[in-house]
DNA sequence: GCCATCTTGGACCAGACGTTCCAAGATGGG
DNA sequence: CCCATCTTGGAACGTCTGGTCCAAGATGGC
């Protein structure tokens, strides 16, 4: 057998993902990728293809490794509205403080960037999973009598998903986390049954 | 008096605005601006400065000439919840069909692009105006007894503003307008008084 | 330890980028 | 009609871009 790669492709892809996430695809040059990963251009192109392939692979990693676990946790959390509240609390915390503060959500950012069909497909899947997570949490809430009667679960799930995009968008520009929390609370309060 | 400009600076700026709006700042080259406007590089640089200045001026024009009139119409529309419903209807229609379909909102897109302080200031003002418009419409709704009792007007205004960002974000990726409408309706329904 | 096979470093490329520059042209007060 | 003053077209600039290429190095089956 011939020579093998001298690096872990997924570990490198994670560094690339973080770079594109923070700075955006168009604003990030191959030279920066080379610097951040320590790889040479040859290894980069041989492993991932050109810049656009690299971006799509990084975005796919983001969606699968970062977003989806959150969405599945939301789906599987049977508490109902408290599960949704916890989702937004953790989201806003992650978006406004710590290592990834003001990076926004890579998928939300990607909506504004290009029109690449591969990217669009990833974003549609991302949205479907997010909405499905919200839908599942809302169903649990309804089953426990937490919801205002007559609430449309599908429409409310869409609303909550769109709200998450709004949080992601504004957090990247440095929005006040308390304002974002108030917005999320308003959504939950308006779904909640009045006299429980 | 010496020679005067052979073009209307604001008319040209509008073409530039549309270019940056549709394609994004980073993805648009000066060569495209030259082609779209018919101006020469000299006139462009003499009138607006470099690319970043040009982008900021275009974004300012967008916020002032396109967004703010909508926000003021919302503020001044005394109907309450129907005013908010009309706002979202028109928003979704404009984002998904017609000349600007799938362009998103230039200000929402700008959140994802750079971290330029001038841009951020514009976006903060944009957000304040949007939220203020929602707040005014909600106050009118409350005055007319349309609102669920106990609703927090400030928090609900923030929620509706964030929802608008979500609509803008997803519409750029080609979201189904009916899904967006359902999301907006869910927000309004959950604010509405149950037995009017 | 040899060698076919793959990886790696880094030089290199053509083209696109934003920006500058200046000669030529247009303008209108005098 | 002249001339000071500004605008305009387009050539030119250095830099940076994404991408290619190949000699040198590493690997492991034999």
From TrEMBL, chains A, B:
<dbReference type="Pfam" id="PF00440">
    <property type="entry name" value="TetR_N"/>
</dbReference>
<keyword id="KW-0238">DNA-binding</keyword>
<dbReference type="GO" id="GO:0003677">
    <property type="term" value="F:DNA binding"/>
</dbReference>
<dbReference type="InterPro" id="IPR036271">
    <property type="entry name" value="Tet_transcr_reg_TetR-rel_C_sf"/>
</dbReference>
<dbReference type="InterPro" id="IPR011075">
    <property type="entry name" value="TetR_C"/>
</dbReference>
<dbReference type="Pfam" id="PF16925">
    <property type="entry name" value="TetR_C_13"/>
</dbReference>
<dbReference type="InterPro" id="IPR001647">
    <property type="entry name" value="HTH_TetR"/>
</dbReference>
<dbReference type="InterPro" id="IPR009057">
    <property type="entry name" value="Homeodomain-like_sf"/>
</dbReference>
<keyword id="KW-0805">Transcription regulation</keyword>
<protein>
    <submittedName>
        <fullName>TetR family transcriptional regulator</fullName>
    </submittedName>
</protein>
<keyword id="KW-0804">Transcription</keyword>
């Amino acid at each position: 057998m011939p020579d093998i790669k001298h690096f872990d492709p997924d570990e490198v892809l994670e560094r690339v993902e973080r770079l594109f996430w923070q700075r955006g695809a168009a604003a990030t040059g191959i030279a920066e990728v080379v610097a951040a990963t320590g790889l040479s251009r040859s290894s980069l192109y041989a492993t991932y293809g050109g810049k656009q392939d690299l971006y799509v692979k990084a975005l796919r990693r983001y969606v699968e490794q970062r977003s989806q676990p959150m969405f599945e946790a939301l789906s599987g959390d049977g508490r109902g509205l408290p599960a949704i509240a916890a989702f937004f609390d953790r989201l806003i915390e992650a978006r406004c403080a710590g290592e990834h503060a003001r990076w926004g959500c890579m998928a939300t950012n990607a909506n504004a960037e290009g029109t690449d069909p591969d990217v669009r497909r990833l974003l549609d899947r991302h949205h479907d999973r997010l909405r499905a997570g919200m839908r599942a949490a809302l169903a649990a809430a309804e089953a426990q009598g937490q919801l205002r009667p007559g609430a449309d679960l599908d429409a409310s799930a869409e609303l909550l998903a769109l709200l998450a995009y709004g949080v992601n968008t504004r957090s990247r520009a440095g929005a006040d986390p308390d304002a974002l929390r108030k917005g999320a609370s308003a959504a939950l309060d308006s779904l909640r049954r009045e006299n429980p």
